[in-house]
Fold each of these.
Amino acid sequence: MDFADQNETLRALSRTLYGESLTLEIVDPRALRLLAKNARVLSKDTFQQLTANIRRDKRLSSVPLCYRASDGVLDVLSGNHRVSAGIEAGVEHILVMVIEEDLSVSQRIAIQLSHNALVGSDDPTVLAELWAEIEDVEAKLYAGLSSDLVEKLEKIELVGFTTPQVYTRTLTLAFVDGEAEHFNAVLEQLEALPAKEVYLADLRHFDRFFDLLEAAKKRFDVRNVSLTLLKLMDLCEEALAHEPSTDKEASA
């Protein structure tokens, strides 16, 4: 099949989108030149699954990036495994993106490595949740996860977070009026709480304490009050470490 007319249309569209630096083109994957040295490797099982996916879909699911070399041949910079799998799957034509600018060898290698490095990584919990949602065996095969990774995912136990499932200790900070009768009344009420520790402070320190919490949250960009308290503890420990010891401490 001759794609000359379609490629002319694609070049016109490419000029609108990218200028003269990049073009879209329909090519025979067997005419592409694969990398002689590729840092990104696939296991045999993963490559076979990729090939099976492409054979089933009769297309590549993403567009390889190529560079037009001085001899006119398109060198594949990103997508070598997909192109190879497409050839093995019998796909006769694919869409590629072609860099038309002059690039040095260093620039071409940098592009290759950046595409390998900037793919991100999977959150294992989210990955396990998504894997668990796939009910069809064929769809699990299509996902193309390695057997080692699948084994790890199967061992992840997904549980909803509820307080009883996490060991916690309750701490109560109460700011009360300093008068004895008010103090005793508050203390009686607090004794009914499940808290293991109860600390009382004079009410006049309430605003100072929470103003300090708010200032620390803003200063260290922390939203959680518990984490803010931990940060204040760190600062206190640091200050105490630099505080000269008293005579009593030295004698001890």
Amino acid sequence: MKKPRIGITLGDPAGIGPEVIEKALQSPKIKCLANFLIIKYPHPIKGFRPGVPNRECGKAALWCIDEAIKLIKNGKLDALVTAPVNKATINSAGVDFVGHTEYLAEATGTKEFAMMLCGGPLRVVPVTRHIALRDVPKVLTQELIEVSIRLTGRFLKTFFAIDFPRIGVCGLNPHCGEKGNLSKEEIEIIEPAIKRLKKNIRNLSGPVSADVIFYKAYRGEYDAVISMYHDQGLGPLKMLAFEKGFNVTIGLPFIRTSPDHGTAYDIAGKGTANPTSIIEAIKMAVSIWKTSNRNVK
């Protein structure tokens, strides 16, 4: 039976990426799922020490991502799993790097994309990602919310076989702005986005206060939650599935998943890193590939 060709970038060499990749692929159950290509920097890294941020490690991590993009564009990979990098070390190497998601989207000319974080009973898609909390109200638009909802609905239908996805949308403010008395983002931005899309996504609801919506999702009332900012969605998810959470970038012209953790410099090189998150990311990449192949046939 044909297997997908999955590239795995090594991530920051000083982080736990190399360790969790090695541990994941030591499992016969994982190793047999695909033909794997580990994408690693081909040159010695000056000043390299596990657990210590290093500009050269940043350059190495970015090289791996760029190499993966080339392989994908040349049709040599079917999916990509990315190990964690450190944005600061990549930026210190002279590259304006916000995150894997944005970098891969720009490299492929993708205009509409989003992160879907999965863990335990939750699937969460943040409308805004790696920006300061104070900037969220300035950046938040009806269009951004609509893109996140549409991509989520399409993804759930295509790859999770959920014909009528139940999608809950978070409010931005406490108590959803208290009907405009506290703030008006819900009335002016979020509600119009929901109203506009409800014609096509029948099980779309919100805005719902963030202190309520994740409890409902945990109880199975939603197939996915749209959060307005990063920590609003990832806090509840990581509380429930810190070691098992993973990310899928939806909207890209190829399959990309990643573990939902960082470089973890504090434990790098100690042999104690848990590979469960990257294992789940690999399994999801394989699952999406299989579904895509069935749909093509």
Amino acid sequence: MLRERLLERLRHIEAEPGYRGATDPNQLVTSIMVHLRKILNTRQGSAPIDQGYGMPDFTDLASNFSSETIKDLVRSIKQVITKYEPRLSSVQINAEPIGAQVLELRFKIEGRLTLDNHLEMPVAFETVVDPDGRIKINK
């Protein structure tokens, strides 16, 4: 399986004609994190190529942090990642307790990457949903 997304590979080939693909695990994790940001901050129905790409509209989320709403959000995040980010397997999403920032939800996205040598590497991303519904992702 190719490790970078098509446009990333094309940019590298343009900048470095001898480039043949990413083998650096850190570069792979960064590529996945950037793609997760794009997926999770795109609203379903707004991507012309696939109406299912992205997240359902959760703009009223901040006014209703019930356990059921959080479960729905976790389920949606997992479904979208499983469908649109095939480089990440065994995806688990865990909601973290609401802390000092009452209007933010925090999640931990965990999964596994299969590297070129067929070894698996665990990865985790810290995710914050702010009051505006924007999702921030960090390693």
